[in-house]
Design goal:
The chain has 195 residues and is of the alpha+beta class. The protein has a single domain, classed as Trna Endonuclease, Chain: A, domain 1, CATH 3.40.1350. The strands form four sheets. A six-stranded mixed beta sheet has the order 3-6-7-9-10-12, with helices on both faces. Strand 4 and strand 5 form a beta hairpin. The longest helix has 18 residues. 23% of the residues are buried.
Length: 195
């Protein structure tokens, strides 16, 4: 289509490219907002775990202390933990740009060991995985996650496994990622002592 003055307008050139930068921050922010909502409504007490850092060099300024050098003091376990209806809850949140699978390289061996420990001790443990290009977010229980890695040599979990064993978390307005709705469906009232 030509506009006045003979200017060509190609709609395809005007499309804004999708920016996949800070993918993990989008999911993290939405989970933090969701957890804040749960806290404000006295539903659950779930917090983002801080990464253990050891500070080795600082500089004192008039505005405060500036950290010049630091390193990770110890490997972190999972991203979030807390309490829900008297039960310990613990989970890892990840995003992937893949449309077909979730790379297991995103989960470290010490995290798998931690997930196994929580699972073996009757805690509520799971992964929340977002396939960013598909705009799909899944909750996969620790049981199904461990079952997959214990019985497969693959370096990734296929999307089909999430569709079969996982639980899709539909976006809501408030809270944005209502994962506790899924937890209630998975475990039911008996798990939480409700008859």
């Amino acid at each position: 289509m030509k506009y006045p003055g003979g200017i060509n307008f190609d709609k395809r050139k005007e499309e804004i490219p999708i920016n996949y930068g800070n993918r993990g921050m989008n999911l993290e922010k939405e989970l933090n907002d969701t957890n804040q909502y749960y806290l404000s409504k006295n539903i659950a007490f779930i917090y983002k775990k801080p990464t253990p850092i050891k500070i080795t060099k600082t500089e004192y300024k008039q505005t405060g202390i500036k950290i010049l050098e630091a390193f990770f003091a110890s490997p972190s376990t999972t991203d979030y933990n807390g309490l829900y209806k008297g039960k310990y809850i613990d989970f890892e949140a990840k995003e992937t740009t893949s449309k077909t699978s979730f790379p297991l390289a995103n989960i470290h061996i010490h995290q798998i060991k931690h997930i196994r420990n929580i699972n073996d001790n009757d805690g509520i443990c799971f992964l929340i995985v977002r396939f960013t290009k598909l705009n799909e977010t899944y909750l996969l229980t620790s049981f199904d996650f461990l079952n997959y890695i214990d019985n497969n040599k693959s370096k990734s979990i296929p999307l089909s496994y999430f569709k079969e064993k996982g639980h899709i978390i539909k976006d809501k307005y408030v809270p944005k990622i209502d994962y506790l709705e899924i937890i209630n469906k998975i475990y039911g009232g008996a798990y939480f002592g409700n008859n």
